[in-house]
Amino acid sequence: MHLKLVQIVANSVEAESFRDFMLKGKEKRVLKSLAKTRPVDLKIGKNGITDNFLVEARRILERDGMIKFSLLCEKQTRKKEIISLEQKLGITLLALVGKSAAFHLLR
User: Fold this and answer.
1) DSSP of 31-70, one letter per residue?
2) pLDDT in 10s for each residue of the chain, 107 residues
3) For residues 100 and 36, what is the distance between their CA atoms, to the nearest angstrom?
4) CA gap 99, 11 in Å, rounded
5) Count of Cβ atoms closer than 10 Å to residue 19 Cβ
6) Who's near 86: CB < 8 A, 6+ residues apart?
7) Residues facing 97 on adjacent strands
8) 3-state helix, strand, coil in the chain (%, to 5)
9) Under a CB-based contact definition with an 8 Å cutoff, are residues 57 and 70 in contact?
10) 104 within 8 A of 31, measured Cβ to Cβ
11) What whole-number distance in Å separates Cα of residue 91 and Cα of residue 66?
12) pTM for the full predicted model
């Protein structure tokens, strides 16, 4: 999904502004190492992504700039929830390990 998006945007006129949001290799490595040792901030349960969940996630993102979720659902549903979270919160996926996903706030 991300690779297709990068390819589409790289070919467009908006490529210059999109590159500003992409992380450099060293930055991504540092953020991934921080995310690995970070405890899970929020768990997405059977109710899915609710309004209260989004409010709490935004609060954590404003405070820390990154967030780690535990996704308690099937693999296909997890992918849909990740895409939904990226769109609703303006975040990008850093790492997906098992049922845990770490995100970084786009600035």
Assistant:
1) HHHHHHHSPP-EEE-TT-S-HHHHHHHHHHHHHHSEEEEE
2) 344 434 444 443 343 334 445 678 888 888 888 888 899 999 988 888 899 999 999 999 999 999 999 988 788 888 888 999 999 999 999 999 989 999 998 77
3) 10
4) 33
5) 11
6) 92, 93, 103
7) 100
8) 50, 20, 25
9) no
10) yes
11) 8
12) 0.73
Spell 90-101 as b/e; 16+ CB within 10 A means b: ebbebbeeeebb
Hey, what are 31's tokens? 């953020």
Tokens in use for 11? 């070919």
Among 34, 35, 47, which Cα is nearest to 81's? 47
